[in-house]
Amino acid sequence: MNNNSDQKLSGKQKAALEREARLKAALKTNMKRRKSQAKVRSRAIVENTDCDRNLEDE
Question: Is the C-alpha dihedral spanning 28, 32, 35, 41 positive or negative?
């Protein structure tokens, strides 16, 4: 946003844009965290499956 558009926006419009930007940033952070958690979970499942197979072989 540039200064000219800031002057034309009402207080409510400006607040709505700021809120939208905060929510967008929070969503991006949340999705990044969830993706990381999913990777860890999938690795744990693969490792547990491998361990179970090794036990069955014995």
Answer: negative
Radius of gyration in angstroms for the set of CA atoms belonging to the chain, rounded to a whole number: 23
**DSSP-derived secondary structure for 36-58:** HHHHHHHHHHHHHHHHHHHHHH-
Q: What is the pLDDT of residues 3-52, one digit of tens each?
A: 555 568 999 999 999 999 999 999 999 999 999 999 998 888 887 776 66
Domain map (residue ranges) of the chain: 10-57
Please give the Cα distance from 39 to 35 (Å, whole number): 6
CA–CA separation, 25 and 31 (whole Å): 10
- Contact, 35 vs 43, CB < 8 A? no
